[in-house]
Amino acid sequence: MPSLRELLAGDPVVVAPLLLGKILSVGGTSGRIAEVEAYRGGEDPASHAFRGRSKRNATMFGPPGHLYVYFSYGMHYCCNVVCQPEGVAGAVLVRALAPLAGLEEMSRRRLRAKSERDLCSGPGKLCQALGIDHSFDGLDLLSGSGPVRLSGDGSVRAAAIGSGPRIGLAPGLATAGEPWRFFLVGDPNVSRRASPDG
DNA sequence: ACCGGGATGTTCT
DNA sequence: GAACATCCCGGTG
After folding, report:
1. Alpha-carbon distance values, A42 to A10, A105, A167 (Å)
2. Backbone dihedral region of A168: left (phi > 0), alpha (psi from -120 to 50 degrees) or beta?
3. CA of A124 to C1' of C10 (A)
4. Considering the entire predicted model, what is its pTM?
5. From the Cβ of A58, is strand C under 7 Å away?
6. Are A80 and A15 in contact (CB under 8 A)?
7. What is the per-residue pLDDT for A196?
């Protein structure tokens, strides 16, 4: 059995569905990963790493199993699990969680949320709910002692996983139509507009 | 339910 | 200056 970190050293498109069902936790808050998107580095024009290393994307080129956090649209943070061996860029964006623990704390951070479904049903929302900001960029998810952790054994049944094109990309990008978004079928936290069944 | 636009700042051309 | 891996609110059907 390969370790989780060994699995994460692979192609993000392969790793992404393996992350479904795993648990992301920060302090007393945690959620089960319900929706992800794969971003290939050099060969994917939608990836932040497509044009090479920069100050923002440096973590994507680092070792697998670390957290890549970026600031989006001047207002929100989004977080990724870094894939591929050190030196090769790749990441999986975490788009939605099913809240598991610390729901009161999440609600305090997300005053706009009108229901449990509003807590973590989006990449910006879940970072706000868990309190993830730029200071989390580069942290090891698998050290077992850090403030942010990725855990969980086993995998989700293939039949329970849906896939489709990634959300929010410019239509002209060569990889915009690739089905590199993966989600738990029927989970209410998954982006509704892009998956009528979910 | 669906759609359109504003907020807001970092990155790159 | 434009683009952007988003979210929220207020319009309309």
Report:
1. 14, 38, 20
2. left
3. 21
4. 0.95
5. no
6. no
7. 47
